[in-house]
Write a structure and sequence with these properties.
Two copies of one chain form a homodimer.
Chain A lengths: L1 H11 L31 E11 L5 E4 L6 H15 L12 H4 L14 E4 L2 E6 L15 E6 L2 E6 L2 H14 L1 E2 L6 E10 L5 E7 L7 H13 L4 E5 L15 H6 L9 H12 L4 E8 L14 E3 L8 E4 L4 H17 L4 E5 L5 H6 L1 H9 L5 H18 L3 E5 H5 L9 E4 L4 H10 L4 E3 L14 H5 L10 H5 L1 E8 L9 H5 L2 H10 L7 H17 L17
Parallel strand pairs in A: 1-3, 2-4, 4-6, 9-10, 9-18, 10-11, 11-14, 14-15, 15-16, 16-17, 17-18
Antiparallel strand pairs in A: 1-8, 5-6, 5-8, 7-8, 12-13
């Protein structure tokens, strides 16, 4: 008996959102999905009692201002396709009563007193010129109104329009005739809480192919995430095919079939741009560079002593390193249009530097008192180089922790340790910060750890309002030791949705039971759109995939 | 520094099989894959220095005895297809030296002194009549010889031939010209350590479609697993479309698109039969039956007191329950040809029985002293019913623990608690046992818990040789709270491979480093064959998928 109870509790405790006694398992799904709820939850939404029907074959989006552009036209086509391809696989003839009928999902809507006819037109009111690339400063606010048998999506910015289209597509609920959607009268004003809402993807530990990256970008759109942090190279492999240094991937990639050509990179950046997603690339140095050393051992440290024969981090005491880095960074800033370059700086093992006698001599000669200072010399020059190339830097927290003086505006990404204390310290020095510590997608727990993700908020630290504003947002991190093309989508979705809502929706949106019901729907929605999102809440089912 | 070390150790400690210092991460994959090693490792294999080439377009399997059958003919076609479709995606022209060349993988094999020409013919020597269905008693032993430019696979049984074909297909290593395989002269005698090597799949918590089940069966073949334990229904849903009681799935399935029709069931059984895999179905009673109660509340217990309004386990005090079960079991035994039916018996919550006053009266009247005895009355009748239908029963350990007297030959499956003590007790009473406790695929750990699976052996308990022989084997369990069609294959493979080897290969095969290298290859092999097996060992890559 005790074993029985312990087991059931262990498996189900995270899922018991109905307050039912643990050992009583009801038939049906663990969590009942909502219908037509938007994920992440909008800042302000009023839903009326009356409703319209939307016929995909008739529905039209019309840009009613003069500010249209290719991004908008492509987005309209995309959402028409998404809406039209919403399918219900249920075998109609054998439809049964228990799960498939509810008050908003019957054949009888025509005679419903709250029914107000078809909604055939959605007006797009974009009130200023399109920007070419999304940026940290982009305006993603929009309003969405469904009223008087008409939809209006309005924004000052193309990026806001994109977010509004996504919201609209999520509100449509297929009716029983499977040809028509139902949507309630609605007023929405929405804008994100944080401007930087990212997903880090590591493509070094395992190569993730371009098609899968594009699926990830699609999935980010469904969650209103706006930064694809491309951790493109690392110790294990160097898949980026550089123009200046093709030998890096020629020798440093796992294989020549496992590289990102310049064409591939453009493809990713364009796919992201059309969806209002920034591509922030990371070339992590001075550590995490072992794969660079196959073609360029001269820039890495030759370890001595017990580590003899091994190569360590980039050698900060030789000019070759800085010349190489400047040439590489010049290319990177040209290839990746985003204002920010992530220059890494995490996990620099000082052991190899310590073991190298020439580095010791350099330090004595130049009065460098410790390895933190040595790292500072290196990072300072890299940050300056990035700055001179008209870009800004993002660094991992160690750079801050080691006391490197950072120029104004350098963003510090917090990934481990006491996040609250770190956020407090970083912003106290006037530096912007990003939070990742609590959103590591490679960390697994049995069942649905999206709830752990959901319990973490980037504003939960002691600091002034000014300090809070310096938190630009955060990123979920998909390190790829244990994922490849075959399971990376499953591992990201829907767990990243929890992070996405924490970064978009107001602080007050944090009810777990409500989120569970909405995430149940959102997961099925993502599956219907082709992403193999995994079950978030235990036993259940989706009909549309 | 400490943070750095701690983090790297945490992530990589499981993967550090090269004896390298934890913070030194070498470029390239974490674990170097073997080439042409068979998984699970054969009982006895001698590999010569000389080698042949095998050309898929020329290779022929020839049955040289009179005992051929459809199973064999289909298998030959299947393996010809598997071998022919082995592709290497590397871009040849840009092939680089670091990963793609090694002594057994160059263009120069023609001039290698150990090269002994083409192997174009594999003779199949089946020395007795094919059986129609695999069974617990089936003979899976085979010998495989590659010598004198000829292959010979010999077995007394069609099932042994199937296992031999699988082994042969795994030994072929693609050469650099990508049209030819290389294989060393080899002598193998192989047979499994345990006759019951299973995978449980729960299709109630999430519906797994027939196509995915067939992929799972294919994957079982690649690991020489031979029992598909189909946990087909449970509390949450009843997807089995019964002939006698169609209302069970009409009302108890999640949806009418999420059912297994009789045709579906036949499809699964046939797909399994052709691969030498038994389909052992489970209809778990008296608990885990809530979905049954939607159409047949009369057989479940109406709880009283605080649980009033709830339905509990099957009511063991009313005749309706036994009549219903006899009719259902009669159908099950007819539909599923295997000798064994799993009748469940796990996690029976006694609270509902306790709360029902009529059950209390029955117990007083019939001198049933406790709920264990009440359960015994029920299970005893079900086991007898199964027996009268010429089948045997498998039960979960609780049935044994509750002291139910079981007829000879009833198999007890151990899934929790102190497995060693349980195996000892069960076999001491002369009952056969199956082990599952340490092979729960729904339990996740960060990274590669296949190593935990691999550390568990079904013979590691105190008992006589006679007792050890009563362990028929074991099963890995894929409970489906957190998996559906989108991630179930990734969750099963390659972790189930660890269980498969523990149940097939000799006790002495337990070197983790060696297994890691072989599993790295085996995972890529499964991926090449279309299964999205997840990375087993951290950073790495497969070329063929």
């Amino acid at each position: 008996m005790d074993t029985f109870k312990a087991f059931v509790c262990l498996i189900f405790i995270a899922f018991c959102v109905n307050g039912s006694i643990a050992y009583i398992v009801n038939p049906g799904p663990m969590v009942q999905a909502t219908k037509g709820e938007i994920w992440p939850k909008p800042k302000a939404q009023t839903i009326g009692e009356t409703f319209y029907t939307v016929r995909p074959k008739v529905l039209k989006f019309e840009v009613v201002t003069n500010f249209t552009c290719e991004i908008l036209e492509k987005a309209i086509k995309r959402y028409i396709r998404i809406i039209s391809s919403t399918k219900d696989r249920r075998k109609h003839n054998r439809s049964k009563s228990r799960h498939s009928t509810s008050h908003i999902d019957t054949m009888s809507w025509q005679t419903d007193p709250f029914y107000e006819g078809n909604l055939d037109l959605v007006k797009i009111r974009l009130t200023s010129e399109c920007e070419k690339y999304p940026s940290l400063q982009m305006d993603e606010s929009y309003s969405l109104s469904l009223n008087d048998q008409m939809g209006i999506i309005e924004s000052k910015s193309i990026w806001g329009i994109l977010r509004g289209l996504e919201s609209f597509s999520q509100m449509l609920v297929l009716t029983e005739d499977k040809m028509t959607f139902r949507v309630n009268t609605t007023e929405i004003f929405d804008e994100p809480r944080y401007p930087h809402r990212g997903l880090l993807l590591d493509t070094s530990r395992h190569y993730i192919n371009v098609f899968t990256i594009m699926q990830i970008l699609d999935g980010m759109t469904y969650n209103k995430l706006n930064v694809f942090h491309w951790h493109i190279v690392d110790d294990q492999s160097f898949p980026y095919q550089s123009k200046a240094f093709p030998e890096l991937s020629n020798l440093g990639a796992y294989d020549q079939s496992l590289v990102y050509t310049q064409k591939d990179v453009v493809k990713v950046i364009e796919h992201a741009r059309y969806r209002g997603i920034r591509v922030m690339v990371e070339f992590d140095t001075p550590g995490h560079t072992r794969s660079w050393g196959i073609s360029h051992p001269e820039i890495l440290t030759s370890c001595g002593g017990q580590l003899s024969g091994q190569l360590g981090p980039i050698n900060p005491t030789v000019n070759a390193s800085y010349e190489f880095m400047e040439n590489l960074l010049r290319e990177i800033v040209e290839v990746f249009p985003d204002d920010y370059v992530h220059i890494g700086g995490d996990e620099v093992g000082f052991e190899c530097w310590e073991s190298n006698t020439e580095i010791g001599e350099y330090m004595t000669k130049n009065s460098v008192q410790n390895y933190q200072m040595l790292e500072e010399i290196y990072i300072q020059r890299i940050v300056d180089t990035v700055h001179s190339l008209n870009a800004s830097s993002v660094v991992w927290q160690e750079v801050f922790e080691n006391g490197v003086r950072l120029p104004n505006g350098t963003v510090v990404q917090v990934w481990t340790g006491n996040r609250q204390s770190l956020l407090q310290q970083i912003t106290k020095q006037g530096l912007p910060a990003l939070l990742s510590s609590c959103w590591y997608l490679d960390h697994l727990q049995s069942g649905g750890d999206w709830k752990t993700f959901y319990g973490c908020d980037a504003a939960d630290f002691a600091g002034t309002d000014e300090q809070k504003k310096l938190v630009f947002g955060g990123e979920a991190c998909m390190w790829s030791e244990v994922v490849d093309n075959g399971n990376v989508l499953q591992r990201i979705f829907p767990r990243v949705s929890a992070t996405a809502e924490k970064l978009w929706s107001p602080y007050e949106v944090k009810d777990l039971d409500d989120a569970a019901r909405r995430l149940e729907e959102h997961t099925c929605r993502m599956k219907m759109r082709g992403l193999p999102a995994q079950p978030p809440n235990g036993a259940g089912f989706c009909l549309n995939n």
